[in-house]
């Protein structure tokens, strides 16, 4: 996890601020996951994720221009 890295914006050289994005649903908040490969639809859960790698996504945001860069 690149949480302690200090990054510079590739566009404007501004300071990148560490954070993450959330999915806001019906009463739930969750950090989006990154999953390898193509999404496979499942009739039971919407998406079939068993056996797939799931990683938390951290997103850096440039304080100057708002550019977002995501890492998993
Ligand atoms: Zn920037």
Offer a quick outline of the entry.
This protein is mostly beta strands. It has no helices and ten strands. It starts with 6 loop residues before the first strand and ends with a strand.
Shape: elongated
Number of strands: 10
Uncertain stretches of 5 or more adjacent residues: none
Give the total of domains: 1
* Rounded radius of gyration (Å): 15 Å
Termini separation comes to 8 Å
Strand order, largest beta sheet = 1-2-9-10
Bound small molecules, which ones? zinc ion
Mean pLDDT: 82
The string of secondary-structure elements, in order, is EEEEEEEEEE
Largest sheet properties:
4 strands, antiparallel
Structural class by helix and strand composition:
mainly beta
- Number of helices, counting only DSSP H or I runs of 4 residues or more: 0
Characteristic key phrases:
single chain; 72 residues; mainly beta; 4-stranded antiparallel sheet; two-stranded antiparallel ribbon; 10 strands; elongated; binds zinc ion
Give an overview in words.
- This protein has one domain (12-71).
- It is 0% helix and 42% strand.
- The chain is built from no helices and ten strands.
- It has strands spanning 7-8, 15-19, 23-24, 29-30, 33-35, 41-42, 46-47, 54-56, 58-62, 68-71.
- The strands form four sheets. A four-stranded antiparallel sheet has the order 1-2-9-10, with no helix packed on it. A two-stranded antiparallel sheet has the order 3-4.
- It is elongated.
- The model has no long low-confidence stretch (mean pLDDT 82).
- It binds zinc ion.
């Amino acid at each position: 996890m690149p949480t302690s890295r200090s990054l510079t914006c590739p566009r404007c050289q501004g300071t990148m601020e560490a954070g993450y994005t959330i999915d806001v649903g019906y009463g739930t908040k969750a950090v989006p996951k990154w999953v390898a490969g193509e999404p496979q639809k499942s009739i039971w859960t919407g998406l079939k994720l068993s056996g797939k790698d799931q990683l938390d996504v951290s997103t850096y945001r440039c304080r100057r221009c708002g550019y977002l860069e995501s890492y998993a």
